[in-house]
Write a structure and sequence with these properties.
30% of the residues lie in helices and 27% in strands.
Length: 297
């Protein structure tokens, strides 16, 4: 354990698409980023944590990814936060990547009291996080795009009776929605475009942005990320790559979800060969509702 790191006994770990998309040469031998657990050892320079603290966040150490699908992992003190006592370990493990990405995207989109927010892919892990965080930040109008069969599920996760939902499989409804919502949204949070070759909303929804609005995309092909890295930014459009040192944001997320009285939806799996295989098959199928979480200890 380095000076600024913590050794964590893992209670729960969650997975995200990045866990099967990123080359293992970059991601390391152990898969998984989202983690919750108990501090077993602290580095010599760590002052904000002590042995026995219950924490949650991302399994990223001072030298890069360390993996969360393991009985123990090492994390940087800047990548985890103390877990509130009333937040279960399994729910805490679901808040890393999806909710940090969601909060960062909402802030890029200047979402706050009275905002109008459109979330594309509203039934997935990042989509549910986006809808819940938009509500917690005070958005006045929230619209989700997802499959019609998931409407009830999304409403259950948000507890938000006036949430509007549009079925992306119904081309007539989608056209009507676009025609009736020209320049109506402050933020469009797109969790779908770029996740597969056949889903692309990046041009079809731009007319629904207000003049000062922001379209925020979290997935993309190599060309998208090269353009992003080079600083070639399209007006009113931002690609979000989740920032490092997420401790303060994790604390804010836990507070926001408590305020909004919402929690992540979990698909709990056993941490064995069959359970891990099933979890990744569900994830790759791209039709999973909410987050896939493993019981490690």
């Amino acid at each position: 354990v380095a000076d600024t790191e913590l050794l964590i006994k893992v209670e729960n770990a969650a997975i995200n698409p990045v866990d099967f998309k990123i080359p293992r040469a970059i991601g390391g031998k152990v898969v998984g980023i989202d983690v919750s657990g108990t501090v077993e050892r602290v580095g010599s320079s760590v002052t904000d944590f002590q042995v026995g603290d219950e924490v949650f966040g991302r399994a990223i150490g001072s030298s890069g990814m360390r993996g969360s699908l393991a009985e123990y992992t090492v994390v940087s003190q800047d990548e985890v936060a103390k877990k509130p006592g009333d937040l279960p370990f399994n729910e805490a493990a679901a808040l890393g990547v999806a909710y940090l990405t969601g909060l960062q995207s909402m802030k890029v989109g200047n979402v706050g009291e009275g905002s109008a927010v459109l979330v594309i892919g509203a039934s997935g892990g990042c989509g549910v996080a986006g809808v819940q965080l938009a509500k917690a930040l005070g958005a006045e109008r929230i619209v989700g795009i997802c499959s019609g069969k998931n409407f009830d599920f999304v409403r259950e996760q948000v507890g938000y009776d006036t949430l509007e939902l549009v079925d992306y499989k119904d081309s007539e409804s989608m056209k009507e929605f676009r025609d009736e919502n020209k320049a109506k949204f402050d933020c469009i949070y797109d969790t779908s475009t770029g996740s597969t070759a056949d889903e692309n909303y990046s041009t079809s929804v731009m007319s629904m942005l207000k003049e000062e609005g922001q379209y925020v995309q979290i997935n993309g092909g190599m060309a998208d990320w090269v353009k992003h890295a080079a600083g070639r930014k399209t007006p009113r459009k931002t690609m979000v790559l989740t920032a490092s040192k997420g401790r303060k944001s994790l604390e804010e997320i836990a507070s926001l979800l408590q305020k909004a009285e919402v929690k992540p939806h979990l698909n709990i799996k056993k941490f064995d060969e069959a359970g891990v295989k099933e979890g990744f098959e569900m994830l790759k199928g791209r039709r999973t509702r909410g987050k896939i979480v493993f019981n490690i200890n």
